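Fold this sequence, please.
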Amino acid sequence: MASRGRSETEALKQNLEEQLERLVAQLADLEEAREDLDDDEYEETKQDTIEQLEDFKKTLEKLMKGNMSLVDELNGMQLAIQAAISEAFKTPEVIKLFAKKQPGQLRQRLAEIQRDHKVGKLSESRYKQQMVEILTALKKLGDTLSPSEAAALASNSNQALSEFEKVTGDIGGDKVLKVAGSQVQEAAK
């Protein structure tokens, strides 16, 4: 009782993160196995996974409305799910790192794809796609982009990522959520 639900909140958060990781891994596995599947099977499996993500998003929205102590943690996961559903991000690893709010690992992934591109291991189109996804995720996490990164993002951004930027901007922002959460905590004292 003394924890006032903190341990339960942490257990719920852990379960939700595991479910999100499972769904993202499912998307990654599907992309890796794409060549082994016929088009209908691939599309059906992908649609099923997207429906699961949509259901998961609805569950998160319900939790966010009913439990203010979960808002901040769930907000990041909700944005990651929105990105997956809108297909703004096509790289499951980027979605996963974004959901876990790990800008350092996103920076490491950016360095890896730059290296792979230089040695010819990654095509130009695949490199640009992943680079833009990572830079967008970093920007949304509040990481400062260098002038060259900002220019690369501006010149290579696509419509899906622009829509993602607009949608996430419309949600309200962490400041509003933090103020609301602190007011609820103060009222509970």
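Confidence is low (pLDDT under 50) at residues 170-189. The longest helix spans residues 39-66.
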